[in-house]
Amino acid sequence: MRRLTLLAPDIVALYGSLAAVLLARYGPSQWGHQWALHTGPFSVLFVVWLVSFYIFNLYETRILRSDREFFARLIQALIVAGLVSVAFFYLIP
Question: Domain locations in the chain?
Fold first, then answer.
């Protein structure tokens, strides 16, 4: 249950960020259409990001207690997920 309480805000943040970026980029008039176009590919990437966070144990509550260890693992997870994201968009236009 604790892992779910850590996972849910990440999901909300990822989709909320996507919504905010699409709204800022395309405006309210095209937001719905752009949301439909972008939700599928970004959902795949969001799963990759969440799996990366899980692999680096960012959903373990004991890791959250150590600032140094948490930030080291976070940076590693972000680098891995970022590289996968770049490869994803490079290979699939």
Answer: 2-91
